[in-house]
Design a protein that fits this description.
Shape: elongated
Number of domains: 6
Oligomer: single chain
Strand order of the largest sheet: 1-2-3-5-4
CATH superfamily of the largest domain: Nucleic acid-binding proteins
Structural class: alpha+beta
Distance between the termini: 187 Å
Number of strands: 30
Number of helices: 7
Largest sheet: 5 strands, mixed, barrel
CATH topology of the largest domain: OB fold (Dihydrolipoamide Acetyltransferase, E2P)
Helix content: 10-25%
Length: 570
């Protein structure tokens, strides 16, 4: 406490009007200010302590104010002895002889005295509270969430610490309530801008605007009090999947006024129209047959879109991606972002279409496959695929040859190729045919060996008696395997001279039978056999054998006789 008032008390004259009869204490008491609780008075800082400040307001005692009431936004108190400040008188002397003063309440009182409904004030948003925000305008005020901006603000927290101008829309000094609005001021500004914009806005004009809102179909641009629609199709000459790919809320851009309905205040805008149309010189820059480079920007089931330059795209159809591979989906060989080289196949400038070919950038292997593998060449390859009608064998890079099921074996009855082969098997085959136009490569495996049916007529002439194993018994006859893969048929009529109920009563699968060859049909690959004529054939064979033996014996006898006569003559 400071009681020494030597340097701060008024300088009183002892003589004159008061004379010697008035004491010094009476003179001092008469000079002290009359203060009432709640008064705002000016004082002088007479002492600065580590946590407080002593202020003289001309009263008989000084007042003590906590140092934190002088702190700025950074928390630092910039005060010094001699500074003059306004303070609020809170109470008279306490037990320590100090009066109660407050700088904060004085500042707040001055602010309250200056406030009035409808006034525009500056404030800083300090915290998030229920229903809105708390704003410091010198005193605490409430900013409802609906009054923050022209449009609802989803994240109010991002405004904390920001300073704006606000309008006081409600004021109750008695209750200490203040309600602010920033939206009212923005609406007033917007209306003013709208009036000016409507005076100057014309179709074909290039104006600056601010991206206000994004949608799936475009975005709204604030042109100054009036919004214009920038449709997604007018954002770029190139592909735009979503407006957010190229624009963000708050961006400043130059746009062209495409259409303006002044009565309805509707504005259609274009961003791509600000720049030249790249399709005007596409034919000159990318003629048919030219090799071009570009980036994959989109993949679909039917092909890939390639960006040749900004605003110019071409399509590589899935059928134009490989000479040899059957591409089921473009993503099997391409990815978005890949740089590829292709060839321009066709141009449709009016419809803004370019047909590209990926495979045309490389030589067609079918052009030289015939020279590399002429007909009759024996190749060796891996079984790549097995189907009901044959097997596919890898011949060259990307080229598979088909061995049809009919070309697997000369003699075996193959129901399905999987009976003989599986994927991954290494096989040899003969080149049978190459159809370049239809890109078909025909192979044969059975052709690696001579057709056994070529010698069948000689080896199994009619009348030949042979043995074989029963492979099948049907209602119309019995099939007999006479050698591997070669079968003959004993028709039901050739089984026995006696009548039988069914061939199944005569023989069973696996049994061995003897039969005679009746006929050989090499065209249809059929051999007719007979058991019924077997005895006749055997008898004839015995007779032929006997006659042959007699003939031979007679011949030998003649030779002996001739030899004997010759000796006698000698």
């Amino acid at each position: 406490m400071v009681n020494d008032k030597t340097n701060h008390e008024p300088d009183f004259e002892m003589d004159g009007e008061f004379g010697d009869e008035q004491s010094f204490s009476e003179l001092f008491e008469s000079s002290i200010k009359e203060l009432n609780v709640g008064d705002v008075v000016e004082g002088t800082i007479v002492q600065v302590n580590p946590d407080s400040v002593i202020v003289d307001v001309g009263y008989k005692s000084e007042g003590l104010i906590p140092l934190h009431e002088f702190a700025d936004e950074s928390g630092k108190a910039n005060v010094k002895v001699g500074d003059r400040i306004d303070v609020l008188f809170e109470h008279r002397e306490n037990e320590n002889g100090l009066i109660g003063l407050s700088k904060e309440k004085a500042d707040r009182q001055k602010v309250w005295n200056a406030l009035e409904e409808g006034a525009v004030v500056e404030g800083r948003i300090v915290s998030r509270i229920k229903g809105g925000l708390s704003v410091d305008i010198g005193v605490s005020a409430f900013l409802p969430g609906s009054q923050v901006d022209l449009r609802p603000v989803r994240n109010l927290d991002k405004l904390l610490g920001d300073t704006f101008e606000f309008k006081i829309i409600k004021l109750n000094k008695r209750r200490g309530n203040i309600v602010l609005s920033r939206r009212v001021l923005l609406e007033e500004q917007r209306e003013s801008l709208r009036t000016e914009t409507l005076k100057t806005l014309e179709e074909g004009q290039v104006v600056e605007g601010v991206v206000k809102n994004l949608t799936d179909y475009g975005c709204f641009i604030d042109l100054g009090g009036i919004d214009g629609l920038l449709h997604i199709t007018d954002m770029s000459w190139g592909r735009v999947n979503h407006p957010s790919d190229i624009l963000a809320v708050g961006d400043k851009i130059n746009v062209k006024v495409l259409k303006f309905d002044r009565d309805k205040e509707r504005v259609s805008l274009g961003l791509k129209q600000v720049a030249p149309d790249p399709w005007t010189d596409v034919e000159a820059k990318h003629p048919v047959g030219a090799r071009v480079s570009g980036k994959v920007v989109s993949l679909t089931d039917y092909g890939a879109f390639i960006e040749l330059e900004e605003g110019v795209e071409g399509l590589i159809h899935v059928s134009e991606m490989s000479w040899t591979k059957r591409i089921k989906h473009p993503n099997k060989i391409l990815n978005i972002g890949d740089e590829v080289e292709s060839v321009v196949l066709a141009l449709d400038i009016p419809n803004r279409r370019i047909s590209l070919g990926l495979k045309q950038a490389e030589s067609n292997p079918w052009d030289i496959i015939g020279e590399k593998f002429p007909i009759g060449t024996i190749i060796e390859g891996q079984v790549k695929n097995i189907t009901d009608f044959g097997i596919f064998v890898g011949v060259d890079e990307g080229i598979d040859g088909l061995v049809h099921i009919s070309d697997l074996s000369w003699t075996k009855r193959v129901k399905h190729p999987s009976e003989l082969y599986k994927k991954g098997d290494i096989v040899k085959a003969v080149v049978l045919n190459i159809d370049r136009e239809n890109e078909r490569f025909s192979l044969g495996i059975k052709q690696l060996q001579e057709d056994p049916w070529h010698s069948i007529p000689e080896r199994y002439a009619p009348g030949t008696i042979l043995k074989g194993q029963v492979t099948s018994v049907t209602d119309f006859g019995i099939f007999l395997e006479i050698e591997e893969g070669i079968e003959g048929l004993i028709h039901v009529s050739e089984i026995s001279k006696e009548k039988i109920d069914s061939p199944k009563t005569f023989a069973k699968v696996g049994e061995e039978l003897e039969a005679v060859v009746l006929n050989v049909d090499t065209a249809d690959r059929k051999i007719a056999l007979s058991v019924k004529h077997l005895a006749d054939r055997k008898e004839k064979a015995e007779v032929d054998a006997y006659l042959g033996a007699q003939k031979k014996a007679t011949s030998n006898f003649g030779e002996l006789l001739q030899g004997a006569l010759g000796k006698k003559e000698d």
